[in-house]
UniProtKB/TrEMBL annotation:
Name under which the protein is recorded: Succinate--CoA ligase
GO molecular function: ATP binding; metal ion binding; succinate-CoA ligase (ADP-forming) activity
Xref: InterPro entries: ATP-grasp (IPR011761), ATP-grasp_succ-CoA_synth-type (IPR013650), ATP_grasp_subdomain_1 (IPR013815), Succ-CoA_synthase_bsu_CS (IPR017866), SUCC_ACL_C (IPR005811), Succ_CoA_ligase-like_bsu (IPR005809), Succinyl-CoA_synth-like (IPR016102)
Organism: Amycolatopsis alkalitolerans
GO biological-process terms attached to the record: succinyl-CoA metabolic process; tricarboxylic acid cycle
Domain ATP-grasp: residue ranges: 9-215
GO CC, alphabetical: succinate-CoA ligase complex
ATP-binding in keyword set: yes
Assigned keywords, A-Z: ATP-binding, Ligase, Magnesium, Metal-binding, Nucleotide-binding
Length: 382
């Protein structure tokens, strides 16, 4: 469960981490009043469980209460990261000297907590790692002893940083431990011109399986479930389908997560871009009509690949379900089939008989045809 920024900052502040003064508001007039009370240049930060809010336009700055109200009118009610912005955090701006990155997270490699630190704060940590892996310092934490000041001091060896940074990271670990958290991240963690260490952002994820141990926290923070993901992804979850919306044009229906991923890789290999991940293996083929509707409701979809490979699962049964969906929904985009495995002969016959099209002999041929249908003037990789 991902906490919103203001919820995370509240917990960080209670744990002893310095955070900016701020107020949580839901109306433009409330934003204006908050800016007046803070009496300085303010940041308006959309409170949604999504990353890269700054790059997506979800964070604005204002020098006056009137500017803050105008910015709030723009932000409130807009869509961001698959959610509607209905709450803003208005907080004072810091006079930044240095931006850092710090996080405590679950580490699959060591099967325990891991402390991460970088002097390249304010950037996506993935970008930092890709550019220079040595820019990120790591310290595995033994849960039997916890994080110690000595460990943090060793991690920061050679860097001229305020001593407050050590107490900040120790507080982050205590919060991680006490919350049964999966992640406690501050990016950026800044040093001001006055030498103060302040958390300008907060990303905290809790282990859903441990929420029963934190009933007081749930009521205190009002952690009512918020929909995450795009509208189509939310519909997919409601239907019990594993659907992920992507930014391409080639729709994909396949049985099994592995085959679906392989199909997506093939679309990319042949110069196309997949529009979705959606596997309808197991009993999901019984939901072929709503599954196909999900794919078609993505306005970017310009072609569709149906890729079935059956061992225990019968491809003729899955194909019949998809054909029923196609006849009911009558999609206007071209559809390209690749069918192999148990029931293949009957499945291929059904496609020929009911749609009058010929399935392709291989997945690669079907994918190449789908990519070409999306971009007929674009050269398709061979």
């Amino acid at each position: 469960m991902k906490l919103l920024e203001h919820q995370g900052k509240r917990l960080l502040g209670q744990a002893g981490v310095r955070v900016p003064l701020g107020r949580v508001v839901t109306t433009p007039d409330g934003v204006r009043e908050a800016a007046e009370a803070l009496g300085t240049r303010v940041a308006l930060k959309s409170q949604v469980a999504a990353g890269k809010r700054g790059k997506s336009g979800g964070i604005r700055f204002a020098a006056t209460p009137q500017e803050a109200r105008l910015a709030a009118s723009y932000l409130l009610g807009t869509g961001l990261g698959g959610s509607i912005v209905d709450t803003l955090l208005v907080e004072e701006c810091a006079d930044i000297r240095t931006e850092l990155y710090a996080a405590v997270l679950n580490d699959p490699a060591t099967k325990g907590p891991l402390l991460l630190f970088s002097t390249s704060g304010g950037m996506d940590i993935e970008e930092v790692s890709a550019r220079d892996a040595t820019a990120i310092r790591r310290a595995a934490i033994d849960v039997r002893t916890g994080l110690t000041a000595e460990t943090v001091t060793t991690l920061l060896d050679g860097l001229e940083l305020p001593a407050e940074l050590i107490t900040t990271m120790l507080a982050m670990y205590r919060l991680y431990r006490d919350l049964d958290a999966e992640l406690v991240e501050i990016n950026p963690l800044v040093i001001t011109t006055a030498g103060e260490v302040i958390a300008l952002d907060a990303k905290i994820s809790l282990d859903p399986g441990a929420l029963g141990r934190h009933e007081e926290l749930l009521s205190e923070l009002d952690l009512s479930p918020r929909p995450e993901g795009t509208e189509l992804e939310q519909r997919g979850r409601a239907l019990g389908l594993q659907y992920l919306e992507l930014d391409g044009e080639v729709g994909v229906l396949a049985n099994g997560a592995g085959l679906t991923m392989t199909t997506l890789d093939a679309v990319n290999h042949y110069g196309g871009r997949p529009a979705n991940f959606l596997e309808i293996g197991g009993d999901a083929y019984t939901k072929a009509t709503p599954a196909l509707q999900l794919v078609l409701d993505n306005p970017r979809v310009r072609s569709l690949v149906v890729n079935f490979c059956g061992a225990f699962a019968r491809t003729d049964v899955m194909t019949e379900g998809v054909l029923d969906a196609i006849e009911q929904l009558r999609p206007e985009v071209p559809i390209f089939f690749s069918i192999h495995g148990t029931g293949e002969e009957k499945a291929v016959g059904l496609v020929r008989e009911r749609l009058g099209v010929e399935p392709y002999d291989t997945m690669d041929e079907a994918v190449r045809a789908a990519v070409a249908a999306c971009a007929p003037t674009q050269k398709v990789m061979s």
